[in-house]
Amino acid sequence: MFLIMNTAAVREQFSNGYLLIATSGGLNQQRTGITDAVVVAWILNATLVVPALDHYSFWKDDSDFPNIFDVNWFISTLSKDVTIVKRVPDKVMRSMEKPPYTMRVPRKSEPDYYLDQVLPILLRRRVVQLTKFDYRLANNLDEELQKLRCRVNYHALRFTKPIRDLGQKLVSRMRKMTNRFIAVHLRFEPDMLAFSGCYYGGGDKERYELGEIRKRWITLPDLSPEGERKRGKCPLTPHEVGLMLRALGFGNDTYLYVASGEIYGGEETLKPLCELFPNFYTKEMLAGEELQTFLPFSSRLAAIDYIVSDESDVFVTNNNGNMAKILAGRR
Predict the structure, then answer these.
(1) Where are the chain's structural domains?
(2) CATH tag, 162-188+235-330
(3) 12-158: what fold?
């Protein structure tokens, strides 16, 4: 059997097979899945096929990997760690007696699980697809694998040039207005509120609208929405974010860049935050027509927000989600 774990450059001809990955969730959840996919490919000594992005979740974004990330940069940057290809070669697919074997591994699986449960199938079938690949690898890995995670997430996953260019333009426009600005990642969209299981005082209308999202997309444990709020388990409202910033000493002359999707409740929900901080900007306000080609694609819009948030002087979030964690590590 070939060596399974090797710190030397991996050559495709010595691979144990091809690993297909189907990611899940929004941009930053998928980013986590891509990062772990590379690590799993290294553990298995497998050739990784460029991961497939999620087209079917709540956001219904049909972007593929090359629409968001620089795929050639991704492949070349990691070439000394893992061999990555854009597709399984036709000759391999033609030689297979059966379609690729599809499986879903348990969440937060240890490397030994992949060696014991996935590797034998990979060696036998040559091509294995892992579905709904998010948080399927344990957090506590040895130092070399953690370093590989960092190389993937903070070096290999570079956004495409159109996304980078527009993101930097928005940063420059903020800098022309002020020397210092705060980026607020405001996750207060309908999906976030539905997934949190929280209640924000909107009465039957809120209960119905968020309940419909929950019924279609998620199954929540039996929680008390009001109780979750009292325990501090819910995303802060825009008004609460504003009050928190003022309490921290930021005056009403502070410039805010608000990174978000469509806020639940629209302008009415945002009004208290705008009153506290009138120098309030979003990508839609700063970009105008330049944003048109990105508008149908939530992940590309999230990538632009990521760039501006990364370049901000202060980064604040109303929840401890994927983007907050990734940017905390980055910064």
Answers:
(1) 12-158, 162-188+235-330
(2) 3.40.50.11350
(3) Rossmann fold (3.40.50)
Question: Judging by beta carbons within 10 Å of its beta carbon (0-12, 13-18, 19+), is residue 331 exposed, middle or buried?
Answer: exposed
As a whole number of angstroms, the distance between CA 221 and CA 227 comes to 13
pLDDT in tens, 2-33: 344 444 444 445 899 999 999 999 999 999 99
**Cα–Cα dist 156/159, whole Å:** 9
**What pLDDT shows up at residue 2?**
38
pLDDT above 70 covers what percent of the chain? 93
Average pLDDT over residues 191-198: 87
User: How is the chain split among helix, strand and coil, in percent rounded to 5?
Assistant: 50, 15, 35
326 is written with which tokens?
Answer: 């990734």
Question: 72-114, pLDDT tens digit by residue?
Answer: 999 999 999 999 999 999 999 999 888 999 999 999 999 999 9
Measured between alpha carbons, how far is 68 from 260 in angstroms, rounded to an integer? 18
CB-based contact 146:35 (threshold 8 Å): no
Task: Determine the Cα–Cα distance for residues 213 and 195; give it in Å rounded to an integer.
Answer: 8
| CB contact at 8 A, 159 and 166 | no
CA 273 centroid distance within chain: 26
Q: How far apart are CA 232 and CA 227, in angstroms?
A: 9
- Residue 160 burial by Cβ neighbours in a 10 Å radius (0-12, 13-18, 19+): middle
Look-up: residue for tokens 């979003």? Answer: 282
